[in-house]
Amino acid sequence: SFKLTQPPSVSVSPGQTASITCSEDKLGARYVSWYQQKPGQSPVLVLYQDRKRPSGISERFSGSNSGNTATLTISGTQAMDEADYFCQAWDSNTGVFGGGTKLTVL
Amino acid sequence: QVQLLQSGADMKKPGASVRVSCKASGYTFMDYHIHWVRQAPGQGLEWMGWINPNSGDTNYAQKFQGRVTMTRATSISTAYMELRRLRSGDTAIYYCARDLGIQLGHDYWGQGTLVTVSS
Q1: Number of C-beta neighbours around residue B79 at 10 A
Q2: What is the pLDDT of residues B58-93, one digit of tens each?
């Protein structure tokens, strides 16, 4: 069955680049969205169609999707980026979320 | 500005039903699908389905088929999600979210509604 796999956690030092992956067979053939969720808050869309940023989202957020893996990249990571990140894709008409990755900025 | 305002927290006993509302403002309600997503305590996001406010068409995740109904009231720009035969595993925050475009993602989210199922 269609399942999106994310690493449970990623750590990064301030100012460095963080990469969060989302994997599934032939994921590159589908569009992937990414959400940021901070504790006690609703999710926020940070990327859609693999690499497009909604209005108001920092240029530090970028994305790619090829083969079996989509990647969310955060450049110049800041303390404010510490959050849970979820990828989402579609299997026919069913939305599927990845299990989420906790990004820690050390 | 676009806003999705959800109903307040609710507590139900096992076997009961719950209905959560989601009132949209700041855009044309009929133009964007509304999705429902839930999040159990400390867990990830789970997609439940969507409703097309224009036609009333719905699409539910297979896991919830037969237990969930999504409806809308166009005159008051409000979407509803009813979940029946509640069990403890349904305890979660339920979110409504607007569709950016067909299968493109959810660009605006409600504040969430905590539903607690407990005897």
Answers
A1: 27
A2: 999 999 999 999 999 999 999 999 999 999 999 999
Give chain A's contact residues with B (Cβ, < 8 Å).
31, 33, 35, 37, 42-45, 48-49, 54, 86, 88, 90, 93-100
User: A95 and B61: CB-CB below 8 Å?
Assistant: yes
A31: chain B residues, CB-CB within 8 Å: 103-104
CA distance B28 to A53: 22
- The predicted pLDDT at position B103 comes to 86
How many beta carbons lie within 10 A of that of residue B76, not counting itself? 10
* Distant-in-sequence, close-in-space partners of B38: CB < 8 Å, separation ≥ 6: B45, B46, B48, B92, B93, B94, B95
Nearest to B45 among A43, A45, A90 (CB): A43
Q: Decide if A59 contacts A73 (C-beta within 8 A).
A: no
Asked if B38 and B46 count as a contact pair (C-beta separation under 8 A), the reply is: yes
**Which residue type does A55 have?**
S
Cα A99 to the chain's mean position, in Å? Answer: 11
